Amino acid sequence: MKNLIGSERCMASPVGDPISELKSRRERARAGGGRKALEAIRATGRGTARDRIDLLLDPDSFIEVDTFVTHRTKDHNMFLHQTLGDGVVTGHGTIEGRRVYCFAQDFSVHGGSMGEMHAKKIAKLVEMAERSKTPLVCVWDGGGQRAHDGIDALAGTGELLDRLVQCSGRVPVISLVLGPVVGVSALAASLSDFTILGEEHGQLFLSSPLETPEVQRGEVDAAGLGGANLHASRSGIACLVADDEDDAFFLVQEILSYLPDHNDAEPPHVPTEDPIDRSNEELETLVPDNPNRPYNMVSVVEEVVDDGEFLELFPNYAENIIIGFARLDGRSIGVVGNQPNVLAGCLDIDASIKAARFIRLCDAFNIPLVTFEDVPGFLPGVVQEWGGIIRHGAKLLFAYAEATVPKLTLVTRKAYGGAYLAMSCKHLQSDYNVAWPTAELAVMGAEGAVNIIHRREINAVEDDQKEEVRQRLVEEYKAKFGDPYVAARNGWLDDVIEPTESRLRLCRALAILRSKREWSPPKKHGNIPL
């Protein structure tokens, strides 16, 4: 009882000048878990919560809220260790002059663990961001839910999760994972529109490594279980990996430069000196004459967009499709493209999910979609069929069909079968579809189609003539079905264009489509095949 009374006296307001008292309390709040704890964090190469906010925001723009919040737990001697702020710094400021709300978990206070009041502080900030229609930046570095708070910690976390879900599609949410993040906190970070992990210290785990059998047996370490490179290449959670904390905050600035403040606003316009009529001479020779030879679709994108700048997201996950942000005539676009360098550009489960979520993100924030298409089909095989390629491929089709932003598609080479339909075709109400003369639009490749349609005719000739007959039939099939002018005659392509005029055509189409508004019958929401 003496200890409790003594600690209550320590927490009571000192008698004296109110201004001095305020300054004293603010200093205590800034101290976090104490000078030694803060220096220990810096010694590992990580920044403290306030260091990180200073790096993230414009100088002297941060306004802190809920500075004096403390936890309410009196068990486990926790009352003796009350810390102002309860392990998270919350507030708002500006990034390159744009308003943002932000928070940073303080690892020096109870290891950044999320107690009831810690979670409620963040939930309140998220709600403020939603009400003010302002982007939210989250800096995570904490060991999951605080065991000392018991079910109260889960209750507070539940409120936070609810607020984050309500924010989804209303304001951009970016999460930086710059330390170990465990449990439900990892779920909260993954609810963001963008999740960036620090390469050295960023880790995400739903179950603690200490409770994971493979870690206990020494088969894998913590980085192998939930490190940045793992989540960038295997799980598909990390859209980008930052070299260090400075790089992480730079990536936040770069992503925000393509996004509006909220779902009712237009994306920023960034003036460019790159003329819209710049000829794309390099594209004339980029696609190989041999339809089975690969090439790099990123090179096509960089040649077409403003100043060759393309911010690719998830570059190491589902590499057979590329997604990211760029600009045409200064206006933000979302890029989706098949990557012939990987799996010949086939769509598989991971590629379908990766592209579908990005399409829905762009649609939520009024960012036009430009699709660069070269797709021979969906990847065949038992693994894909058993894994649900039908359901996951339908996600991609659903996302394109549901999107109401301007949709532009450029077919560079192959557009076969169901994959052609899933990649923003005219039949899914794409607004502007063009193709290069090298494009083939068909149910399948000419060789495969001929082997099915004309198998009796081929088998009927002598062996030494089979190949000659097959090649003649292939050419006939291409002229009759695969030629882009066949699709153009039916209105399924708006035009067949020269590669050199790709940029000009896309810029002009985007300019006229800026005023696009699409009406659909009212409903609560569609039922995407999750």
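(the above was protein one; protein two follows)
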Amino acid sequence: MSDELDQVFVYHQATKHNFHAFARGPGTLDWVTQPDPFRRYQGAPLVELEKVAPGGYPLYYPALLGGHVPPAPLDHHSLSQLLFDSLALSAWKQAGGESWALRVNPSSGNLHPTEGYLICGPVEELCKVPAVCHYAPKEHALEIRAQFPLETWQALTAELPANTLLVGLTSIHWREAWKYGERAFRYCQHDVGHAIAALSIAAAGLGWQASLLDDLGTEQLANLLGVNDPQGGGAEPEHPDCVLAIYPQGEICRTLGLPGAVLDSFAALDWQGTPNQMSPGHVDWSIIVDVAAATIKPPTGGVYDSKAPGERSEVADRDEPLQPVSTAVSLRQIIRQRRSAVAMDGRTGISRDALFDILYKTLPGATPFPTNALPWPPCIHLVLFVHRIQDLEEPGLYLLVRASTAQEALQKAMKDEFVWQKPGGCPADMGLYRLMAGDARAVSMQLSCQQAIASDGCFSLGMLADFDVSLGRYGAWFYPRLFWESGAIGQALYLAAEAAGLRGTGIGCFFDDPVHTQLALDLQTLQYQSLYHFTIGGPVEDIRLTTLPAYSDQ
């Protein structure tokens, strides 16, 4: 085992919650050092984007299927729309004299460690020459950090489809660590996954698609995004996570990388703007620094071509959802109305077909957005605690196997008494199995840190990762990607819940090894690990809060 992989295992084990001890955190919140939720680059030119009008947008279901939306031209309007429907503010909430922003892309604790960057060629009304821009969601504007020659852009994108743009994502770990301490690195990675999926889904609404260029190394990303130097002033560093190529549907992206020599040249650009400092003081969570260093990715090539832990599901093409009650809802409505429920009503139920349709949205290749943005075969399976599903034979414990080759290993690793029965009416191409019948409400609440929201919904779930095999095959740098896949699944669940007239909530607080014990997984190994929990149901609205528009001119 490499030193880096050993450090990942040390971090993962040390940041588990258990019945008798939580992962180390701050204990109490220091409101004096609460991080600024918005990064800005003082001195960088600011270019305003359009607040896109609500009409003229594709429907939710056809857009996610792909091929139903003509590709939009790449211009100022479409770029505005892409960011407006992925990383922008969605609303403001107000209680008394306090107000806070919500965003299209969800975040643990609404802390938003994820920053977005646009790298593009010349775009009319935006930039006359190629540029690297930081996205400022509060203003819905771009800060131009650097400009570079057209020849460099052409060399950078020579192997990518025509009319490609690049979007990079970074994480400011301190934003999460301020509240969550050592477990924050996990939550930052969830948020990256949500943002990847949000960009993929917003691209689908434009007739575009997103592909993660995952051959790039961390240092190359830092050069491309201009975040390899905090530029003084005490600004908190940004960890470069990934970059996506976004291009018209129907085109084929034949590479997961960018030319190394061209990427290296970005380090010498004239970078503009000084990043603001988030907090006047900080707590040093050294284990986060260590795991971030251990998961630094080298440049790679072709690592996902063979010997994968699973295979992409081969699912039948469907032009209609299994539950057709909400086919007329627009994609933008679903995207921008998405909220995280704070409580469930404990009464609402849904039909069996609605459950199947929600789960179908998480399957690789099923819609195909957003999972087609990820280049690796699926590593995450869903353990469901089913509570209130009409026409389903029995409530209880279920498992959705998201890679067809994974069932045998999962069945061998779990309890012998699990029955592994497909529920009646389940589509033949969906690997959903009932493991055990019974009332799962109490155990789901207990495992999710005693939170009633896990038992009061229609169902809740845990995301179970092929853990040690995936890390052993790819390396320590793949650890964040397991959380990215979990976050992408979470984003698909959020939108599917909204389309079904429900609401979802991601749950980062759960008791890790007790989840594994519930499934009789061997605690002496890390073969499978639960990485993220989620719940869907009828929401209870907090009437004490007032909702305000995301932007004053809307």
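Reviewer note on protein two: Residues 307-325 have pLDDT under 50 and may be disordered.
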